[in-house]
Amino acid sequence: MGAFVGDFEPELKELRETFNSGKTREISWRKAQLQGILSILKDRENDICKALNQDLGKHHVEAYRDEIGTVTKSVNHALRNLKKWTSSKKAKMALASFPSNAKLVHEPLGVVLIISSWNFPFGLSFEPIIGAISAGNTIILKPSELAPTCSLVLAKTIRDYLDNTAIKVVEGGPYVGDRLLQHKFDKIFYTGGPRVGQIVMTAAAKNLTPVTLELGGKCPAVVDSISSSWDKKIAVKRIIWGKFGACGGQACIAIDYILTQKKFAPILVELLTKYIRKTFGDNPMQTNSIAKIINKKQFSRVKELLDEPSVKSSIVYGGSSNEENLFIEPTILLDPPLDAAIMTEEIFGPLLPIITLENIEDSINFIRARPKPLAIYGFTNNEKLQKKMICETSSGSITFNDAIIQYVADTLPFGGVGGSGFGRYHGKFSFEDFSHQKAVMFRGYLIDFGFRYPPWNNKKLQL
Ligand code: NAD
C-alpha cells in the first residue's frame, strides 16, 4: 500500500471481503502464503540484510541469524504443524449430557492489525504474520517508521510475494498508527513500548477488540558465583551475547542488569571485561559486531542514562561513545544508584549495570520489588536457587544458564506478564493467539430428563 493516502476504508473493505469469501480458511491458501514468506527470505536475503545494515548497522551474520534464520525456522515449523493445529479436537463430555459428543474448532478471528517495532523489523513483523496466516486471518501490518529501509523492504516484498487481497502493509509513524486504530479490527497485535501500548488498548476497548501487547521492561540476570572454570567461561560468553550481541542491547529480552554477590563481583567484572575485549577488540569503536543505536533521539536517551554524575562514577569498563556513528561502547557499571534512571528505566542499549547483594538469594526480593520482567535469567546450577527463582518471581519467561535463546523455541510461549505485556505467541501459541477456539456440541434426542424444564415444583428437587 506504501505511503499513507487516506483513511484506509477501501483497503479494509477489501480485507473484509477477502475474509468473508472464505479464501483464507483454505489450508492450501495458508500454505501458499507461508511458502511465500520462505521465498521472500530466500530470494531477498541481500535486500533484507542490506536494509538491516543501513537502519541498524547489523552485520550480515547477525541479520541472518536473528531475522532470516529465525523466521525461516518458524515458517517451517508452521508448515509442518498446520494440519495438526487446524484439525478439530474431540472434547470429553460429562455423563449428565449423554447422549452427546463435542469438539473444539479453531476459527480465524477476521481482519487483524499488527503493529511492529524497529529493533527486529522483519522478525517482529513476520512472526505474528505467520500466526495470523496459519489461523486463516486477513492482515494489515504497520512496521515501525524508525527502521525506514526495512519498512520499505517489508512493504515491497509482501506486495510482490503474498496475496495482497488478504495481506497489506501500511507504512508510517504514530499518525498512521493512530488513523488505523480508529477502525474496528478483530484483533490487534502490538509490539513496542508501554506508552503506545496504552493507546492501542484504549482504542481497542472502544470496539472490545482483543489485543496482544508485546512490551518490554528490565530483564535481570542473576549471576551466582559459578565455581567450575569451564561453566564460568561459557556463562560470561552468554552474558556478553545476551547484552550486546543482539541489536547492541536494543532487544526486549536483552539482559538489562546483573544481580550478583558482593564477593563475586570483582571476579565477574574481570571476566566480563576480558571477554568484551576478546569479542569486540581493544578498540570497540571499530567493531562491526555491535549494532548501532537506532537514531539520535535514542542515542541521547542512552547517553543521558550514563552521563548522570553518580552513574558515571560507577563505570568500571567502557563509557565512550561517538554520536556521528550512533555508537556507544559496551559499558559495565558497578553499583550505580538504584534510584538513578539507569536502574528504573529500561536501558535498551549497551550499558550493563551490576548490582551487588550480600547473598544471591536476596536477588529474589530485589526482582519482586520491581515490575514483572519479560524475561529473567539465572546463571546458576544451584537447584535450590533455580527452584526459588521459578516459584517466587513472576516474569514472561525464565531461562537458566543462557539468555535470549528462549525466543527461538517454537514449543515455548513468548510474551510478558504484568507490565511486560500479555498474550503469547510463537509456534502453536501464535496460531492460538490469532484464533478463536469454538465449542461445538452435538446432542441426541434419545434420553431427556424432565426435571430440567419448568414448571417448577418441589418434587423436582428430590430427583
Ligand atoms: P514504540 O511504542 O515507540 O513504537 C512501536 C510501534 O508503535 C511503531 O510501529 C510505532 O510507529 C507505533 N506507534 C507509535 N505511536 C503510535 C500511536 N500513537 N498509535 C499507533 N501506533 C503508534 O516502541 P519502540 O520504540 O518501537 O520499541 C521499543 C519498546 O518496545 C521497548 O520497550 C521494547 O522492550 C519493546 N519491544 C518489545 C518486544 C517484545 O517482543 N515484547 C520486541 C521489541 C521491542
Question: Could you characterize what this model shows?
Answer:
It holds the Pfam family Aldedh. Keywords: NAD, Oxidoreductase. GO terms for molecular function: aldehyde dehydrogenase (NAD+) activity. By secondary structure, the chain is α/β, with parallel strands linked by helices. It contains 16 helices and 18 strands. The strands form 4 sheets. Strands 10-13-14-9-8-15-16 form a 7-stranded mixed β-sheet, with helices on both faces. Helix 3 (about 45-55) packs antiparallel against helix 6 and helix 4 (about 60-85) packs parallel to helix 5. The longest helix is centred in the N-terminal third of the chain and has 27 residues, at about 60-85. It starts with 8 loop residues before the first helix and ends in a 20-residue tail after the last strand. The model is unreliable at about 1-5 (pLDDT under 50). Nicotinamide-adenine-dinucleotide (NAD) binds near residues 117, 124, 144 and 374. Nicotinamide-adenine-dinucleotide binds near residues 116, 118, 191 and 215.
Brief descriptors of the model:
single chain; 18 strands; 41% helix; 17% strand; disordered N terminus
Low-confidence stretches: 1-5
Structure ligands: nicotinamide-adenine-dinucleotide
Helix count from the secondary structure assignment: 16
Roughly what percent helix? 40-55%
Largest sheet: 7 strands, mixed
Tell me, briefly, the overall form. globular
Radius of gyration over alpha carbons? 25 Å
Order of strands in the sheet with most strands: 10-13-14-9-8-15-16
| Average predicted local confidence, pLDDT | 96
Strand content: 15-25%
In whole angstroms, the N-to-C terminal distance is: 65 Å
Kindly state the number of beta strands: 18
Query: Which structural class best describes the helix and strand composition?
Result: alpha/beta
